[in-house]
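Async update (no meeting this week)

Hi team, since we skipped the sync, here's where things stand on the single-chain job. The sequence we agreed to prioritize is pasted below, unchanged from the tracker. I ran it this morning and attached the output directly underneath so nobody has to dig for it. Comments welcome in thread, and please keep replies under the output.
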Amino acid sequence: MSEKELRIIKSSGDGESKNREAQWFYTDIVKSHFFSPKNIIKSDDEMKSFKADGIGLVGSPACGDGMKMFIKIDGKTDTVKDVKWQTYGCGTAIASTSIFSEMIKKDGGMKIDDALNIKPRDIANELGGIPARKFHCSVLADKAFREAVNDYFRKTGQKNRIVEGSAKVIDQVLKITDHDIEHAVLEGATTFEAVQKKTKVGIHDKDCISQVEELIRFYKKKYFGED
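Output:
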């Protein structure tokens, strides 16, 4: 990892207390999981031999990362027996997925429902914190796992347990969705003005402004614990 990779741009909207010193560097835990990622698939043969019960694939337009996750499930106990993954992109995405895979495999494997309750903030905390502008990378592991679990539910006929997340158009003129607002908040835009600067939401469709503000509050509380 280069010095440029290790040093990040200071963010004014980091979702943390303004009294807390801004984080500029990756923690030793992040660097450890980046240089020596756990449960990563390193070859096509390894991927083929894993024989996954569920596969999830997601990508983030916020930073261009992609994530593919493979899971094995013990159907009798409804626990995650094993997990493997592949990714490309930044060091935070690699480290976040590495530590997340360790979290859900711990003590013989988590119950599926418990693993689904892990939030991106939990992943960040396990890493000792991550830069605000890289927080969206921790979401990749969470979303890829959810897609893999949904795939497992489909294959095993548990359609009632599938949770789908479809995008909703918020700005009717520019067709900006709630997912676009979510990505903006995850990148550190925690005010309406900052979100509008990133997405152009509400410039032409003034009627959506109150809904955007409500979404910003929702995502700040969901990911950063802020009201």
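Quick observations from my side:
The beta strands are 54-60, 65-74, 79-88, 169-171, 176-177.
The first strand starts at residue 54 and ends at 60.
Reply here if anything looks off.
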